[in-house]
Design goal:
single chain, 169 residues, alpha/beta, 6-stranded mixed β-sheet, binds magnesium ion
Length: 169
């Protein structure tokens, strides 16, 4: 079994915690204040085991970070040990200020790999957003990142994301 740390990243409300719950069954928002406000404030944790080829097993510790700009210091505290980042961008909203800020932090800290989850794919035009994101990633260390449309109400999209993570790891 190989161990990895995956961190989420992305703008507030773009579906990071929901996607962690869809992947793992664990709601990473553990504080009462987070549940009351419907927002992540501090780091949350979950565990994901995925099977790769040749009977490999990946044990992935997930660190879910807050997207709100007020809590970017907590985000920073979480991403230092990341092997891979899951950058979430909501299809109805696109590349927003904390998408950019978190992306710059991932680049600056030298995170090796990212997978982009184009979240809330049930809400908008995936094709246009994909082109927009590919353009943002061009000329960055993550130019070849996979962009996977996901919706928490479509389990096959979550399975596709799992396969993308396995292929990167
Ligand atoms: N339609 C739709 N709504 C979604 C989806 N994923 C999440 N949401 C909704 O989007 C809102 C924000 O989701 P969260 O998972 O809390 O977003 P987040 O990125 O963790 O937010 P912060 O941690 O506060 O930055 C919630 O109301 C979710 O129900 C999705 O795939 N489709
Ligand atoms: Mg959250």
């Amino acid at each position: 079994m190989t161990h990895f740390i995956l961190v989420t990243a992305g703008h507030v409300d773009h579906g990071k915690s929901s996607l962690v719950k869809a992947l793992t069954g664990t709601d990473p928002d553990r504080l009462p204040e987070e549940k009351a406000r419907g927002i992540t404030i501090d780091l949350g944790f979950a565990q994901l085991n995925l099977n790769g080829q040749n009977n490999e097993t990946f044990s992935i510790g997930i660190i879910d970070v807050p997207g709100h700009e007020d809590f970017v210091r907590n985000m920073l505290a979480g991403v230092g040990s990341a092997d891979i980042a899951l950058l979430t961008i909501a299809v109805d909203d696109g590349w927003m200020p904390q998408t950019e800020e978190h992306f710059q932090i991932l680049v600056y800290l030298g995170v090796k790999k990212i997978v982009v989850a184009l979240t809330k794919s049930d809400l908008g035009n995936v094709g246009n957003r994909r082109d927009e994101i590919a353009e943002k990633l061009r000329d960055t260390p993550f130019a070849n990142a996979q962009i996977i449309p996901t919706s928490v109400s479509d389990s096959s999209s979550v399975a596709t994301l799992e396969r993308a993570l396995v292929s990167e790891l």
